[in-house]
Amino acid sequence: MSPPSDLPVEDPAILISDASLRIDSMPPDGRALELSVSADERAAIAESLSITALDALAVTLKATRFRGGLRITGKLFARLEQPCVVTLEPVHQTVEEPVDRIFLPVPQKRRDPEAEVFVDVEGEDAPDYFEGHEVDLSALIIETLSLGIDPYPRAQGADTAVVLPRTDDVETSPFARLKALKDQDS
């Protein structure tokens, strides 16, 4: 079953240059990673997230070894533009999000797909899993950005009262119209 076509879907084909790390060549004290995403990559990300433009995207990360995998910490910074939900005017937004994610190798013993999984909503996030010796951080970066974007941006001074019909007028409400139709049939 595929998701509805009007919802933005993370595109697995979007790969950010230099956003992958080899775990087998990781120094003992970790590795710092600073990424400034190219204009073509930003355009692809903006399209996949259904925003007008992604003017800047920079990520500063620190990768350290953790239980046979990696712990990635750092910060994401982005400037973007999207339409106002009321007026459709361009709204500019700055996103600054912390990054803290754990990547572990896929366990040798796979779980039964029918087994129940208990999730502690208050607990730590479950780790992400990877196969092989390389971890690609593109999906992590795009996901972190998408969670920081305002889902209902409003232009300054935008007021829904201008766009929405008045609801205090009982005679023009849909229910009043249905009642009038019912009364005509009687």
From TrEMBL:
Superkingdom assignment: Bacteria
Protein name according to UniProt: Uncharacterized metal-binding protein YceD, DUF177 family
Species in which this protein is naturally found: Devosia enhydra
Lineage of source species: Bacteria, Pseudomonadati, Pseudomonadota, Alphaproteobacteria, Hyphomicrobiales
